[in-house]
Specification:
- The chain has about 675 residues and is an alpha/beta fold.
- It is built from 18 helices and 32 strands.
- Among the domains are: about 180 residues, TIM Barrel (Alpha-Beta Barrel), CATH 3.20.20; about 70 residues, Beta Barrel (Elongation Factor Tu (Ef-tu), domain 3); about 200 residues, Alpha-Beta Barrel (TIM Barrel).
């Protein structure tokens, strides 16, 4: 297994997932007795074990999370890797001996965020993959926390922790470990181009490992989950080699490791933003990005001795017990198969193929059996002595958080209109909203400063929305912007990154926790309240049942609920307008999308908006009275604005819309019990 290969080739530590609450639920995760056995054996070997609990959790799951943490407190992994702030709260209050590592899913990209977390007992942070070397250096200089950096493996096209794509179409959220890898799909543009437009190459930083070590990075992370043992062995061997030998002969060590990595059967490689923070050359649009060596296309399908076989013309050498993956022509289905029957012909082979695949489907070699080395088993066959289990235990009683009248009345009930276009602000006086939520990016700040004297609204009528990706280089810029804005009277802010909270706490500002701080449970709300956020925006992925349950312990008057908008399904650091000459596209399931790009990032939005406008009475019945209409990405006219506001006023069902997860919630294996 992959664990044996990792340790056999010299890994100092491994990170493992259990059956629930981890970001790779499709992987073959560990049972409790296997996990306990692995910890026992690896600790005896002087190795470390980190366990991933790196997803968000809903309020109803608190009595599953708590006994799991209690179990960890007994079996003693070296740290818990977390995404949800609620887990930090639960661990600090109940299991202070457990060490916490912040997952890359937390989107930590600045020393401000790292140091903020250290105040809450977080010992190590896995930094965002979007950072370049210069920013890593600055972060290292400004924190004493342990830092971990991804060096090899698959990349997400979206900023870590910010992808909503697969959740928008069926609730299979990346923040719940259910990512359907929409970035690897085949798309067709409005200019009739076809391609895997969002499929990144794999990260490979082997040549920069000496620089990261000299910089003082504490841990180099290699992706190993959902990978076979051969792949894991190859990458661990390569990185072990360069770590151990670069001081003697750096050039030789790197060259040898490069040669080892030629056998990893992985995607094309990229340095991503490590050297160039403006790099756009990390996408491989001609291939889905699946791991494997392209063998060829199926030329003929027929039954041989009762077995479905396909002929693949190829010069590649195939052998019995190799493993291949078959992709249908339009890339709607993929399936792996072991070659247990092989008929060699003059120009290729007949191999077994799965049902419902046909001529012109593609075949990739994903594992050569002859290259699979045998390693000593870490987990013993007899697990009878490892009997610990989370069991059943109730989470301690949670005291209701009482709000003060002063806080509640800082923001009135009503409609709050969000926009990313300064021109829209001059349309809004036609029907004045309670306040304007204005997206504060670099370009919009300059426009705000330039047009300050002509704005039709006073600074007190604005809430400034800070985007969730907040890097080390954004830090200085934001502080310069705040000095101007606060001085002019802007003091309401929606934050989406904890680094932003750290800065705003130094100003006399009203801090609202944004949707990307993921307040899916009472503990995350409590954590953010203690951190300085006194108002909250409902996460876009949330459902009504969970929202109402969380707010049995909080005042709903402190909440803003978005009722209309076009969610950003992907948020991408690159400006893809420099790479693509189209802005509209569709996937193989006939879903339509639009690309909006600027110098700071690219956003992919659906053609069909999210709307729960007609659910306003239900929300008001539960004491939610602050509603957000998000008109970003729309380039609205005055007539359209009036039409939307009229629909809100009349609580209308608009034509062609999505409920997102409002009704059914996150995807679950069992049938949902929520009703409309």
């Amino acid at each position: 297994m992959a664990l044996d290969a990792a340790i056999g080739e010299g890994a100092d530590a491994v990170y493992l997932g259990l059956k629930d609450f981890n970001a790779r639920l499709r992987a073959r995760n560990f049972s409790y007795n296997q996990f306990e056995a692995a910890i026992s054996k690896l600790h005896d070997m002087g190795k470390k074990v980190y366990v991933t609990v790196n997803t968000v959790f809903e309020d109803w799951e608190k009595d599953r999370i708590f006994p799991l943490l209690k179990y960890f407190d007994i079996v003693k992994p070296d740290a818990i890797i977390v995404q949800d702030f609620g887990l930090i709260k639960l661990i600090n209050d109940n299991f202070p001996s457990l060490k916490v590592t912040a997952s890359t899913q937390m989107n930590i990209s600045s020393s401000k965020a790292v140091n903020f977390l250290s105040k809450y007992g977080v010992k190590r942070v896995v930094l965002s993959r979007e950072l370049d070397f210069a920013q890593l250096k600055t972060i290292r200089q400004n924190t004493v926390s342990e830092l971990e950096v991804f060096a090899h493996g698959a990349l997400c096209i979206s900023f870590s922790g910010l992808c909503l794509f697969s959740s928008y179409f069926g609730g299979k959220s990346a923040n719940r470990g259910k990512c359907t890898q929409a970035c690897r799909r085949l798309y067709k543009s409005d200019t009739q181009k076809k391609g895997y437009f969002f499929s990144p190459s794999d990260l490979m930083l082997i040549e920069y490992i000496p620089d990261l070590i000299e910089l003082g990075i504490n841990s180099i992370k290699l992706e190993g989950r959902m990978k076979n043992a051969s792949y894991v062995a190859t990458i661990v061997k390569a990185y072990r080699n360069v770590i151990d030998n670069y001081q003697n002969d750096k050039e030789k060590a790197v060259r040898e490791s490069f040669e080892i990595l030629q056998n990893d059967f992985a995607r094309n490689k990229t340095k991503y933003y490590f050297i160039n923070s403006n790099n756009n050359d990390f996408l491989n649009t001609d291939a889905s990005g699946e791991i494997g060596l392209f063998v060829g296309k199926i030329k003929e399908v027929k039954k041989i001795k009762g077995k479905i076989m396909g002929f693949i013309p190829t010069k590649e050498k195939l052998m019995l017990n190799d493993s291949v993956r078959v992709h249908c022509e339009e890339d709607k289905r993929r399936k792996s198969v072991k070659i247990d029957t092989l008929i060699e012909e003059k120009n290729g082979y007949f191999i077994p193929i799965p049902e419902n695949f046909k001529e012109d489907d593609s075949v990739y070699l994903i594992l050569r059996k002859e290259e699979l080395k045998k390693y000593p088993h870490i987990i013993p066959n007899n697990l009878s002595q490892f009997k610990r289990h989370p069991g059943i235990s109730k989470t301690p009683i949670f005291k209701k958080l009482h709000s003060t009248k002063k806080n509640v009345h800082k923001f009135n009930d009503g409609i709050y209109v969000k926009t990313d276009n300064i021109a829209d602000i001059y349309i809004f006086p036609s029907i004045k909203p309670e306040k304007i939520i204005f997206v504060l990016n670099k370009r919009n700040f300059e426009l705000l400063r330039k047009n300050f004297a002509s704005l039709p609204f006073a600074p007190k009528d604005f809430i400034l929305y800070l985007n969730p990706y907040f890097s080390e280089e954004s830090d200085v810029l934001l502080q310069e912007e705040l000095n101007f804005l606060i001085n002019k009277g802007f003091n309401n802010f929606i934050v989406n990154n904890i680094g932003q909270i750290s800065i705003l706490k130094n100003y006399d500002a009203n801090i609202i926790a944004g949707p990307y701080l993921y307040t899916f449970n009472r503990y995350s709300v409590n954590f953010l309240h203690d951190a300085g956020c006194h108002f909250f925006v409902n996460p876009l992925e949330n459902n009504k049942k969970n929202l109402f349950e969380v707010n049995e312990f909080f005042d709903p008057r402190l909440w803003f609920v978005e009722i209309f908008g076009y969610p950003e399904l992907f948020q991408i650091k690159a400006d893809l307008s420099k790479k693509y000459d189209f802005t509209d596209l569709a996937d193989n399931f006939q879903n339509q999308f639009h690309i909006f790009a600027n110098e700071e990032q690219t956003s992919i939005i659906p053609e069909i908006p999210f709307s729960i406008i007609d659910k306003i009475p239900q929300l008001q019945k539960n004491n939610f009275n602050k509603f957000i209409i998000d008109l970003s990405f729309m380039n609205i006219s005055k007539n359209y604005y009036k039409t939307i506001m009229k629909a809100v006023d009349n609580r209308e069902i608009i034509e062609k819309f999505s409920r997102f997860n409002w009704k059914d919630g996150f995807y679950r294996e069992t049938n949902n019990e929520n009703t409309d």
